[in-house]
């Protein structure tokens, strides 16, 4: 057997196409003739139906045809001792079951099986020729594979009708990695690196980072779909699936990281703004509660009127007032108790409710008395308007 060419190895259909010159030889004593003292070496026939032939067929064949250009590529030689040599050129498409778990770093073994169709081993036995029964042309070229070696063996099969003789040739192919390195691995690495560029962009550049992340994610998904389109749907995980899955995870992680960072940044900014607004409101409330009576008090209140107006606007936006429960600032609630008893002091109705540094209190601005739930009534000294300092002499009641 001479392997002339292997034109195609199809991963999707799991088949390969081969062109070979097939030869078989057997002994038929009925065809002995006189060679006239060695003058006639052999007889040549071109019609195979004129002699008896073994009923050999290729068991894993899908398609096949003979070659008839310019003349039928077949001959039969009959030697004087009754030996018959049959030779023909044929092209075959043979099935080749593949295991793609290591794709594209795999090796595949494709077989060529020759079996007797009707004659059992009691009548017909196939034997490999001693020496070198299978030859391969030296310039054999495959687009994505390399033929590492080939082995010959026997594969007799037993059925209900008997045992049939069988011969097989195992062709071991190694897949070339350079093609997949250029077409799959390098583009996937480039897509992952491009998705990481978003880490160096400003977090406020939302359109640029979102566009970059979504584009690389869709490109990676398209690349994965293209790879799987050239392979049969199998029930196990391939090596290329692990690679594309890891790359897709990195690209998706880069996009998810931007979403989380953007959300956290906006939350921190909003929390800081709320804290500043409510701190301003509490500061102004203390200024209103602690101003001193005197000829300059009206001027001070008038100067703070603008701040109070701004405070009221910010208060309605950032804080919530509940007359029954008091003020609510941020995530904490400061309860407003019922109006305390003056304890014999005639304050009338001219005192109100305020809070400072997370603690609420009743106050009377004219006499500078304050009432807190923990300390009771407490009189604050009047503030010096020049240095805005308090002395430490407090009276508790």
TrEMBL record:
Keyword Transmembrane: yes
Protein known as: Glutamate-gated chloride channel
Family named by the database record: Belongs to the ligand-gated ion channel (TC 1.A.9) family. Glutamate-gated chloride channel (TC 1.A.9.4) subfamily.
Subcellular location: Postsynaptic cell membrane
SUPFAM superfamilies xref list: Neurotransmitter-gated ion-channel transmembrane pore, Nicotinic receptor ligand binding domain-like
Key word Lipoprotein present: no
Taxonomic lineage of the native organism: Eukaryota, Metazoa, Ecdysozoa, Arthropoda, Hexapoda
Source organism of the structure: Acyrthosiphon pisum (Pea aphid)
Domain (Neurotransmitter-gated ion-channel ligand-binding): residue spans on this chain: 2-175
Keywords: Cell membrane, Chloride, Chloride channel, Disulfide bond, Ion channel, Ion transport, Ligand-gated ion channel, Membrane, Postsynaptic cell membrane, Receptor, Signal, Synapse, Transmembrane, Transmembrane helix, Transport
